């Protein structure tokens, strides 16, 4: 999820510091008259290093985790399928962070690396992996909710086949959704998500985010209430035993 925070910083920095930019190969950077207020080169150097460091950290950690799950039989549980899917989406975000670093490098190296070809690809990656990550978090919360609140019905309700179908369907839908922007005509010369994609894309992303947060919140609150209920029941049972003695 850390990659999502950096992506938001990227959007803000691009919007405020680099208005009306053309990123085609060999193009000259054009800015609006009177808007030459840009961060110093060292700021872009820091962001380049941060993106690369974060990308390496995300890729290495998630690769180790997936390898551990692959080699350890005890980790191949149904609930871990959603965690592995979350790790996969984080790895895709790590690839996006590497591409993101090219944007910042362009600002201090002085060579145009951010091309018209690369721009829609990086936006497509973040449009794809961010909703998948958020949905996987909601799936994990719902899985734990069913396991704790309905323990006897859990084996029948949550099966490996159903979980794999849900994960595959989620990836298929959002890969189609995110990378569909590669086929739409480019209506602007800059590389901001607000101008690269239709408004409907952004609204769908927000709706998925809020629904996932609502589901996760409901599941976690229900789990906490169930845990408190069980604590009270155990406490009452122990008190009754003490009274009988």
From TrEMBL:
Location in the cell: Cell membrane
GO cellular component term, pick one: plasma membrane
Signal sequence segment: none
Membrane topology: Multi-pass membrane protein
Name listed for the protein in its UniProt record: Beta-1-adrenergic receptor
InterPro entries linked to this entry: GPCR_Rhodpsn, GPCR_Rhodpsn_7TM, TAAR
Entry superkingdom: Eukaryota
SUPFAM superfamilies in the cross-refs: Family A G protein-coupled receptor-like
PROSITE patterns: G_PROTEIN_RECEP_F1_1, G_PROTEIN_RECEP_F1_2
Source organism (scientific name): Elysia marginata
Similarity comment: Belongs to the G-protein coupled receptor 1 family.
Gene3D superfamilies in UniProt: Rhodopsin 7-helix transmembrane proteins
Sequence intervals crossing the membrane: 42-68, 80-101, 121-142, 163-182, 202-223
One GO MF term attached to the UniProt entry: G protein-coupled receptor activity
Main location: membrane
Positions of the G-protein coupled receptors family 1 profile domain: 61-245
Keywords, ordered alphabetically: Cell membrane, G-protein coupled receptor, Membrane, Receptor, Transducer, Transmembrane, Transmembrane helix
Keyword Transmembrane helix: yes
Keyword Cell wall biogenesis/degradation among record annotations: no
């Amino acid at each position: 999820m850390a990659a999502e925070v950096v992506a938001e910083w990227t959007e803000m920095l691009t919007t405020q510091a680099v208005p009306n930019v053309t990123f085609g190969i060999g193009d000259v950077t054009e800015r609006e008259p009177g808007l030459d207020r840009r961060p110093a080169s060292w700021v872009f150097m820091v962001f380049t290093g941060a993106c690369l460091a974060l990308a390496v950290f995300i890729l290495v950690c998630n690769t180790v985790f997936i390898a551990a799950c692959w080699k350890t039989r005890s980790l191949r549980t149904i609930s871990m399928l959603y965690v592995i899917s979350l790790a996969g989406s984080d790895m895709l975000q790590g690839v996006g962070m590497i591409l993101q670093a090219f944007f910042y490098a362009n600002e201090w190296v002085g060579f145009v690396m951010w091309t018209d070809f690369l721009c829609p690809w990086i936006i497509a990656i973040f449009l794809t992996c961010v909703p998948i990550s958020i949905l996987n978090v909601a799936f994990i919360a719902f899985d734990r909710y069913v396991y704790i609140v309905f323990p006897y019905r859990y084996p029948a309700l949550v099966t490996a086949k159903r979980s794999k179908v849900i994960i595959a369907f989620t990836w298929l839908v959002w890969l189609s959704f995110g990378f569909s922007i590669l086929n739409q005509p480019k209506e602007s010369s800059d590389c901001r998500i607000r101008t690269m994609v239709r408004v409907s894309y952004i609204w769908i992303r927000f709706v998925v985010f809020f629904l996932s947060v609502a589901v996760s919140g409901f599941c976690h609150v229900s789990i906490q209430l169930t845990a408190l209920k069980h604590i009270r029941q155990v406490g009452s049972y122990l008190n009754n035993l003490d009274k009988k003695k």
